[in-house]
Amino acid sequence: MSKHYLSKLFEPASVALFGASERENSVGAIVLKNLLESGFRGKVFPINPKRKTVQQQKCYPNLEEIHENVDLAVITSPASTIPDIITACGEKGVKSAVIISAGFREIGDAGKRLEQVVIENAKRFGIRFIGPNCLGILRPSIGLNATFNRGMVSTGKLALVSQSGALCTAILDWAASRNIGFSSVISMGISADLDFGEVLDYLTADPQTESILLYIEGIQNARSFMSSLRAAARSKPVIVLKVGRHQAGSKAAISHTGALVGNDDVFDAALRRAGVVRGFRINDLFVAATVLSAGHRIQGDQLAIITNGGGPGAMAGDHASDKNIPLAALSQKLIDELNSVLPNTWSHDNPVDIIGDAPPDRYENAIKACLDDNDIDGILTILTPQAMTEPLKVAEKVIPLAKKSKKPVFSCWMGGSQVEKARSLFEKKGIPTFQTPEAAIEGFSFMMDFHRNQRLLLQTPSPLSDQNKPDIEGAQMIIEGVLAEKRKVLTETESKAVLSAFHIPVNFTAVARSANEALIHAESMGFPVAMKIYSKDITHKSDVGGVRLGVENAIAVRNAFKEIVASVEQNSPETPIEGVTVQPMFSKTNGRELLVGIITDPAFGPVITFGAGGSAVEVIKDRAVALPPLNQLLVQNLIRRTRVSKMLGPFRNMPAIDKEALEQCLLRISEMICELPWIQELDINPLIANENGVMVVDARIVVGHRSQMRERYSHMAIHPYPANLVEHWQLAEGTNLTIRPIRPEDANIEQEFVRGLSQEAKYFRFMSNIQELSPAMLAHFTQIDYDREMALIAVIEEKGKEHEIGVCRYITNADGKSCEFAVVIADEWQHHSIAHKLMESLIDCARNRGLELMEGFVLSDNRKMLALAQSLGFAVTIDKEDL
Length: 883
Description:
Helices cover about 35% and strands about 20% of the residues. The protein is an alpha/beta fold.
C-alpha cells in the first residue's frame, strides 16, 4: 500500500522552522530547543532572516537557501508573514505545515481575512496544514517534538488529538507523572485546514496507534467527523472528552423539542452511534484507554465483585448501581462450587466477600469459579491489606487467571506501601488496576459503554418494507407550497398531511369557517370533539386561548367556536383567523402521552427525540435523542433511555401499549427526515399510545429552504442505506436478479458466496490462498460506511431465500478524490454480463459521489478481469514494482 498522504506531516525526514529564535521563553526558541533535544531522526533547518546562527545551529534567511528536501514546515513567525511563507513552501515543494502562530479568526474580522489568504495559498499549492493557533505536534517514536510544550513525552500506543493547546499541555504533564506514553500528540488549534476527520483517518491507519484520545470543543464538519470516527472505532478504542456540556440549545427554537434538547444531548447521541466512549474528566481519558487497550471485550454487563472486605465490596456495589451496572446473580451451581472452596462465613451473595483472612489460594479458587460461570461477564477483585493478607502473592495468583480468561478481570488493591509491589506487577502484566473501588467501577463502566456503543455502531438501518411505501412526492409538494407562501410553520392540517404521507396514524382534522360548519363536522365525526384555532400565524394555540377539548354536544360546539374566535381576537388582535379545526377526541383510555420530535443541530443536522409528552414537557424534561437513520434496535434503545419507558408496559391496571406500533412510528419519522431535508423541526405532542396502537393528536412542522446539496443525504451526519441504488435486472435467458448495496445482515450470504468460489477465483480476488472470510474480514466487508465506500451485490431469490452471485466494491482513497475497486462473480454465473452490469452501476455511484479516478490492481494472468476493465474504458498499465 502507498503511504498515507499525511505521512510527511506526521513522519517527516526534515523540518524547516520559521521563526527560530534564541529569545528566552519565546515560542520559536522553545520549539527549536524541543526539535534539537528530542532526538529527532531527521534534519532541522532553522529559518530567521535576522540571524546567522540560532542555538548553535546554522540559520537560513529563507526557504530558498536550503538546498535539500524539506518535508514539513513548522511556523512560529508573526501571523502577517504566514501567507508569504505558505507561498514559499509551495514553490519549494513543501506539502505539509504546522502553523503554531496565533492572530487569525480568534482576533476578529482582520484575522479572518488573513486566515482566508493562508487557506487560499495552501490550496493553490496542495499544502495541508495543522493550526493555526495550536501547540504543535509530537511523534515520540521518531523523536519529533514540534511543540512549545515543556517536558519530555515518552513513546506509547495512545494518540492524543486536542483542540485546546493549554489542556494538551496539562494532559501531557499529567500523563508523564504516570508513565503514560503516546504514539502521536496533535494539537488542532482552530483547524483552518485539517480537521478531526482526516487526522482520525491517519491514526486509524497508523500501526503505532492502538487507542485514540480526543479532546473536543466543537465540530466543523459533522459528516466527515462521524464517518472517520466510526471508521476508527471499528478497529481501535476511541475515547472522547468534550467541554460545554451545559451549553443551552438554540433559543430561537419554535418547537417544544427545540427547547428541550441542548447541544450536548446531540453530541452524546453522536458518540454513542459512533461506537466510542465518552469521558467527563481528564482522568477518564486514561482510565478508559487503560481498560480498553487491555484487549478484553465483554459480551454482557453482568459484574461479579470478589473482596476480602465487606465495606469496600459494598462501596463498589453502590457505585455499580449508580453507573447502571448490574451485579450478576449467583446461580445455585456457582454457590455450591463457592461453598466447596470458601469458609462457611462467606457472603453467599454478590459482592462475594471471601472474608478478611483470605489467603492467595482462596482468591484463586473464587475467581476461577466465577470466570467459569456463563452468567458472569467480568470480575472486579478487591484486596484490603489486613494483617494476614499477602498482597503480592495474591496478585501472582490472579494474574495467570486474568491473562488466560477472555473475560476482563480488574484489580483494586487498596492502600499504599503494602500493596505497591502488587500494583506494579499488575501494571507490568497489563491487568487494569485501580486504587479505589469507585475508580475500578468507572473503568468497568467504560468497557460496558464501549460494548453497548459498539452494538450501535454496527447498525446500518435498511429501508422499510417495499410495501406501503411513503408518498415522498406528495409530502414534498405540500412543503414546497408552504415555502412558496413564504411561510416556515406548517398548520396542523398540513403537518398531519405530511405525516400521513409516511403512513403515521393521525387524528383526522377538518377546518370550519363558521360555527354551523363546525357543527356539521362534529356531527359527522361523533362527539366528543376537540376544537382549535386555525391560523397560519399562530404556533402555540393554547397561549392565545385557542383550544377547547371534550366538546360534548351541538350547542357546546357553536359556543366553543365563538369563544375561540373571541379569545384569539382579544389576545392577538393583529392575527388573521382562518377558522377553527374540529377533530374527534381520541380516547385516552389506557393512553400514555408521548412526545416525538425533530430538531436540526447546527453541527450534526437532524436529530430525533422521544420522551414524555403533554403540556408540561419543558418541566418534566424526560427525553432521549438519537441520530437518524434508525432501525428497530436503535429505536428500542432510544425508547429504553427515557423514564416514561417504564410506563409503557403494564402499569396501574393499564395493559401494555402496542410497542410495535410505537417502534414503527419512530421508524417512519426516521424515514421522513431522511427523505425530506426541508424539515427543520417537528413536534408531535401528544402522541397517544395504548394497547390498540398510536395516534398523532397534535403536530407542528417547521421547514426551510435547503441549501444546494452535494448529494441526496448530505443534510445528515450518518449516511442512510442508499435505497435509491437498488436495481432490478434480468439476464438474457430470463433470470431475475437484484443489484443492491450490501447490508450488515448479508454476512451469511457473503460468507457462503466466498466459500463457494473456486480456488482460482479466490486467488484472483484476494491475491492469497484465503479459504473463507474471518469474522473480522466479514464485518469489514458487510458493515460499510456508505459515505466513503460502496459494495453492490447481485442476488437471486430461490425458495424465498436470497443467494449472492456477485459483488463489486470501491473504497475511497485517503485523498478523497480517487478510489480502488474490486469485483468477483460466482464461477457458475460468469459469462452472463453480470460483472459488466455491476461495474457500470458502481462507476455511476462513484461519479455521483464526486470521485474523479477509479483504479484496481489485477494479476497479470487474470485475463478475464483485464478484458472487462478494457471494455469499461479503463487504461491498463503494468505496475513497475512487479517487473
